[in-house]
Amino acid sequence: MDCKVIDGGRRCLRWATMRLPYIFMFLLLFSAGGLLLLLHLQYLTETLHEQAPGGKLIFPQQRPDQCPYCLDNNTHTSSPKGRKKLSRVRPVNLWTQRPPVAHPKGVAPQITKNYRKLLLKNSALLLQLNSTAAGQASNHIQRLTQIQQSRRKLMRDVCAKYRSLTRTISRRQVSRIYVEDTHKLLYCEVPKAGCSNWKRVLMVLQGQASSTRELRHEQVHYANHLKRLDSFDHKQIAHRLNTYTKVLFLREPFERLVSAFRDKFESPNSYYHPVFGKPIIAKYRANASRSALLTGEGVTFKEFIQYLLDVRRPVGMDIHWERVVQLCSPCLINYDFIGKFETIEEEANFLLRHIGAPANLTFPSFKDRNPNAARTSSRITQEYFSQLSLNQRQKTYDFFYMDYLMFNYSKPFSDLH
């Protein structure tokens, strides 16, 4: 190799001479590639601008299958599988105005037919998806709104026919109502109709937790985190009843009754077995064993119904099987929202969006008590009531008649009258 001393250093001329063509070739190719990429990006940008003069194409952040119903605050709601989601909805805007692209006078960007067809097809598809989602969401909101109007009207009509609407409201009659001041919400507790999860939602709304998942059963029911309406003075009660959103969620009466029985008498319970089970077994079971009389365990559904229908019950009523008309006084309190357990997630999320709840808060779907046991269904309810005579079923229906009538539930058995 020929090397010379140049400027005080050694330089290998042959090495440099041999590699210079490759270096120039690499730089030339790199520059050409960059220029082609720049021209292609400019060409595509001009194509987009030319395709929709005066408009800029904006793709929604969510794919249509992920967010078929986008709310007015760009949030979502969750719901059970197979159900549509949504509350007050604003269509996704695909186009926003902007100044037209300026081109040299007399010069228009060249657009191939393939590019034009592709853009026309995509634009039409996006507009169609947007229009379809907005239409479905609008219909969904309208349907839920009409359902609420119908339920409130039925409640008022039944109350007008059977009860007075002018009586004074006492503290006892608002004792089951929980207060959430931040979002001005009053929720009447109906046990076995999603009340545990509703309490979780109220605690999150109040800022006592960041998620419903982190709240255990004991925190929800025994820690006294939530205020009841009867804890306020008369003036404060009247103010909240007149200005807050009053909410009631309920359940098919027979199904709610079976759910309460399964939870309190078929599962271990240190309160209901001795307090309710012992006197029920003592009065309604012939030749009861000493163990049953001492523990109160093993109450049958038939014995439970005997207790429920007895005008001389050996132990008083309990909120878990008390009638909704007694728990929440719907003929005295004009509820703004009447939800049902059968569609609780859809309707609860609709309500949460309406009151301006945080975007990430949706109604929880997990089972609070005995998570491994099957949720009480209409089929399970039929199995329990099949243990009773027709007369017992009829008397139980008569006991809950106002709940069936006021909230538009069908007769659970065809032989009832």
Automatic annotation (TrEMBL):
One of its GO terms (cellular component) is Golgi membrane. Its main location: Golgi. Keywords: Carbohydrate metabolism, Glycoprotein, Golgi apparatus, Membrane, Signal-anchor, Transferase, Transmembrane, Transmembrane helix. It is found in: Golgi apparatus membrane. It comes from the Eukaryota. The keyword Transferase applies. The keyword Protein biosynthesis does not apply. Belongs to the sulfotransferase 2 family. This is Carbohydrate sulfotransferase. It comes from Ictalurus punctatus (Channel catfish). The gene is si:ch211-269c21.2.
